[in-house]
Amino acid sequence: MTTKPKFTEKKYLITLLCVTALFMLWGIAITMGDVLNKHFQNVLGVSKSESGLVQFSIFGAYAVMGIPAGLFMKRFGYKNGVLLGLSLYAFGAFLFVPAANAESFGYFRIALFILACGLATLETVAHPFVAALGNQRTSDQRINFAQSFNGLGTIIGPVIGSYFILRGSGIDGTLDSVKTLYIVIGCVIAAFALIFSTLKIPALSTNFEDENEAQIDKPIAPKKKLFQHRHFKWAIAAQFFNAAAQGGTWAFFINYGHEIMGFSDELAGYYFALSMVFMTIGRFAGTFLMKYLAPNKLLSIFAFANIVMCVIIGGAWGWPSFVALLMLNFFFSIMFPTIFSLGLKNLGPHTQQGSSFIVMGVVGAAFFPYFMGSIADHYGISQAYYLPIICYLIIFLFGSIFYKVKG
Q1: Domains along the chain?
Q2: Pick from 24, 46, 310: which is nearest to 153 by CA?
Q3: 294 phi/psi in degrees, rounded to 5
Q4: Which of 118, 287, 81, 86 is nearest to 201 (CA)?
Q5: Taken in order 211, 143, 359, 123, is the CA torsion positive or negative?
Q6: Environment class of 390 (CB within 10 Å of its CB; exposed 0-12, middle 13-18, buried 19+)
Q7: Cα dihedral sign for 166, 170, 175, 181?
Q8: CA angle 399-402-403, nearest 5°?
Q9: Going by C-beta distance under 8 Å and a sequence separation of 6 or more, which residues neighbour residue 287?
Q10: Engineered SS bond to 381: which of 49, 173, 244, 376, CB 3.0-4.6 Å?
């Protein structure tokens, strides 16, 4: 008889909680970029296209830092990788002070780039770290559990940013609120780094093997090179298109609410925050459902569901279409962590390096919104939401066919 593997082991519990906290911390920073976008338009007088460089700075850092972070993690280990990420995160936050003093959009972009290099490092390290904190069979559950708190961070970020930054700009029209907030953020991240440095990490198995599941978890063809693993290459593609669809959906959510539903920008923004709540609910629901459904099957179901949602959204049928737009985030919920986990399966000593390449797939979010925007300019915002169907089709194929580990 085989024993059902545990979610994690007692010796890993504290480490798992600390690493899970990282997911929330970078979720806060990522979504605060949208708040900064609007604030820079108000205070620095930059155009909408120029303010879009905020996102390019953030996601560009993921493309630049993914491989170096993976190499650093492989050489110095998970713990030191986390400490590097937190250090860059804090340093970038503190650089907001001279940027605010100089009232320079260029300086802010540099600060954001360095901060995002820290975020990219944390993402590269944290996913395989969480996967290694227990049996490989439950790695999908652990990563989705940790990503649930990332979803919480994506809700907290806009709330904090809107209150302390946009509210501040409405009062005095200066960058003082930005400077103060990021000093606090830098101090919090630095304090967390200090706490994490004192943490004793139990011995981990690089390839997540479990002695009781030797036949199941044993790495297949351990001498294969990283890019000889077909499922890994498909995971990179799936992650690229997943990030692309997410970036495009979020970029034009408020436009859809305003142009199709007739909402004010403010009301559409509140609905956007609600959609983030849907995503968080979806991540917790996904973690639960994976007890009964294989992760790849759930991924395929959610990808197919979003294909249907996009068809309804593109139809511009009033509230049914807008509810479908809200539901996109619910079905988004498990995609990033599940693609990540499936892509890392049985990579053995290539796990850390593989993590860095999958993280780099986030760069899709830097480019796809441009193509959706072009369709929206020529054919209307609702028509633009047909384009992500291509993305979900790739994800569906990965979850239904190409996730399989080949010998």
Answers
A1: 9-218 (1.20.1250.20), 223-407 (1.20.1250.20)
A2: 24
A3: -60, 140
A4: 81
A5: negative
A6: middle
A7: negative
A8: 60
A9: 141, 144, 145, 148
A10: 376
Residues 6+ apart with CB under 8 A from 35: 157, 158, 161, 162, 165, 166
Amino acid (one-letter) located at 362: V
Number of neighbouring beta carbons within 10 Å of residue 158: 20
Residues 116/326, Cβ–Cβ less than 8 Å: no
> Which position has the token pair 């077909």?
230
What is the pTM assigned to this prediction? 0.73
pLDDT digits (tens, 9 = 90+) for 88-121: 999 999 999 999 999 888 999 999 999 999 998 9
d(CA 92, CA 82): 15
Task: Quote the pLDDT of residue 324.
Answer: 96
Which residues, including other chains, have CB under 8 Å from residue 80's CB and lie 6 or more apart? 72, 73
CA distances 212 to 1, 4, 135, 218, Å, are 11, 10, 10, 11
Handedness of CA 88, 94, 100, 102 (dihedral sign): negative
pLDDT along the chain (407 residues), means of 10: 71 89 90 73 69 76 84 89 96 95 91 94 88 79 81 82 65 76 94 93 58 43 71 90 86 81 76 85 86 91 96 95 95 88 81 78 80 82 92 94 76
Residue found by looking up tokens 């890993």 in the block: 12
The length of the chain, given as a count of residues = 407
Asked if 55 and 366 touch (Cβ cutoff 8 Å), the reply is: yes
- In angstroms, the CA 237 to CA 233 distance is 7
- Structure tokens given for 357: 């390449």
Beta carbons within 8 Å of 67's beta carbon, 6+ residues apart: 353, 356, 357, 360
Residue identified by tokens 């509810």 is 323
CA 198 to CA 16: how far, in whole Å?
15
